[in-house]
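Problem 12. The chain below contains 543 residues. Write out its predicted structure in token notation.
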Amino acid sequence: MEIQTIKKMEKEAIKSSGVDFIRLGFALFFMVAVLTYSFLSTGGVPNNMFLGIAALFGAYMAMNIGANDVANNVGPAVGSKALTMGGAIVIAAVFEAAGALIAGGDVVKTIKKGIIDISAFGGNTDSFIWAMMAALLAAALWLNFATMAKAPVSTTHSIVGGVMGAGIAAAGFSIVAWGTMAKIAASWIISPVLGGIIAAGFLFAIKKSMVYKENKIEAAQKWVPIFVSIMSWAFVTYLTLKGLKKVWPDIVDIFVFLPDAKKPSFLVAAIFGLIIAGIVYMIVKAAVAKKASSVENTRDGINSMFTVPLIFAAALLSFAHGANDVANAIGPLAAINDAVMTGGISAKAGIPLWVMAVGALGIAIGLALYGPKLIKTVGSEITELDQMRAFSVAMAASITVIIASQLGLPVSSTHIAVGGIFGVGFLREYLDTTDKKDIIAIEQEHVDDEKKVLKAFEAELKTLEKKENKKKENYERIVDLYKMIDEEEEKIKEAKKNLRTAQKVHYVKRDAIKKIVAAWVITVPAAALLSAVLYFMIRGIVL
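Solution.
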């Protein structure tokens, strides 16, 4: 039997290692292809070796973004069973790449969020190139480590830490805009708290308006179209503000009735959202009315009505992420490309199509090869999600960004999504603990009663043992009492265990919270330290 078990374990290990080898092979093939193309397309250009290596690092970074960051967009949908793992990977890969290529823009800021002053390089192009290479590789390595540890972290914070560390190594601490860094640190608290509050608020509203009603289907016919139309408004507004801001001038050229501006205003985005929300309301109202006759009057019946909206949410979140966050992968690469081609240092750089393709394809490949690990973590290993909980998390992801952008608050999409999952989990704990007050009281009474019985047995035993002239029945009773005391102690242990279970309704895994929060806090300093070390290594090798 043991030999058979060992053989099965060996087969599984061989199978697993084979899959890992294939994944690694695909990843290396992509990176080598990028390196080769970079050398072939820039032959004869001075410093093209740096550009080729930077392209290699950019491909590696893009794959790590796909493996770690994209899980936040599709994880809740997978965890709630609205999407299969395969379906989620296909949707996310397609929409991430589409967002990057269609709406990623043609110009990118070389230094994300202006965290360092590029004038401190004093026109030293080589030092700037080394710093950007170190930042890119450090951020990618940190993301790789976080993915292995199943910790969803912010890719923006990773690259921010990388740029900061390399900048300090190259030009000293004065190069850093510490006010900007303070805002980024504030986002560690602002993002998850806002996301958690909004997600919990929507879940509570869904429960109150439909789940707690006796006639759930009738309530769903009224409220599901409203909730889905609110989601439509939020996502269209979010997509316009964040996903289309880089190509807005091109959109204005096509639709001349739009205000001539470099980026969309909140008013324009909100009006777009309202128009789409009105159309969606009518479509969903008709669809829910048609479906109502075939849906059971249960919680599962309500859940099924949020499946299709969740799929749309995953797709739109992925598109917006591809359009907005691809700069994390290709920003430093575009900066290096610009520095190599022009021989200077610019605050903004054009994005060649091949550089954008590295970011878009790298994210899709990284997601397909290594994304499932983090998708499982986000979708099911923090708290149990169903469709309405996942819908609430998706709502939080879009609405939090809208609110934060209007208030000028720094936020992280990763922290918002994970904070939203924490929020719905803690709401469940609160509601269930409130409902179980009577159970807790009964369990406490049970513990007290068992303790009274135990004390009575112990008192009787003490009395019998003090007797000097014991009869046979006394000895028999003493033996019985010892047995009953042991049994009673076991009953009390079990009763206390039940009481603790009733008192602590933990729907959010505490170990997951500790691990994720720790990873968030150390992301910037860890990436910065790693980047500084890499900068000195690169400079030492070159010089």
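Discussion. The chain has two domains: 16-435+505-542, 437-503. Students who got a different answer should revisit the alignment rule from Section 12.3.
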